[in-house]
Design brief:
Blueprint (H helix, E strand, L loop, with lengths): L2 E6 L6 H12 L1 E4 L1 H7 L1 H9 L3 H21 L3 E6 L4 H11 L5 E8 L2 H12 L4 H9 L12 E5 L4 H9 L4
Parallel strand pairs: 1-3, 1-4, 2-3, 4-5
Length: 171
């Protein structure tokens, strides 16, 4: 039985690092929207035809959803990492994949805002802490009324220990 592991967190929280480590542990394939445009020639062709920012985000999501379905059809685990700012977006993605009957695991990165901001500055340039909080942290909807079981991941913890929190669910 294939699993879909959703790893959610603000930029700089450690989603990509954790997902890559977890991938090698469970033999899964990572879907990371940040890298879709960089690594996927099929998507690059689509980008040339559609350059509008709002449209581009939708195209990237649809492309990744299609890839996730293709991966699941082979029986391989999918590790999908992105901010998932709105819980409704996460639930929409789950519904879109549920016809393939995977099990779902929800992981939420718990990393200090200061550290996330510093990591983001190193990776993407100089963004003020205030702008970082306004752009990313304040838009992140909390998991308050989310009824599914989820795993809290320490974004500063040992990769082995934190990835084991997820891997232990996969039979």
């Amino acid at each position: 039985m294939a699993y879909v592991i959703f790893i959610r967190g603000v930029p700089g929280s450690g989603k990509t690092t954790l997902s890559e480590h977890l991938s090698s542990k469970i033999n899964g394939i990572v879907i990371d929207p940040d890298f879709t445009a960089l690594k996927d020639p099929e998507f690059q062709k689509t980008v040339q035809e559609n350059t509008e920012e709002g449209r581009l985000k939708k195209l990237k999501y649809r492309h990744n959803l299609k890839k996730a379905k293709e991966i699941l059809e082979t029986g391989t685990h999918v590790i999908w990492t992105q901010p998932w700012r709105k819980i409704s977006g996460l639930e929409k993605t789950e519904r879109a994949l549920s016809s393939l009957k995977p099990n779902f695991i929800y992981a939420d990165m718990d990393t200090s805002i200061d550290l996330c901001w510093k990591r983001t500055r190193r990776k993407h340039g100089n963004i003020t802490k205030r702008n970082y909080i306004e752009k990313y942290v304040n838009r992140q909807e909390p998991f308050l009324n989310f009824s599914k079981q989820r795993v809290k991941i320490d974004g500063t913890g040992s990769l082995d220990k934190e990835s084991d929190k997820i891997a232990c669910f996969i039979v």
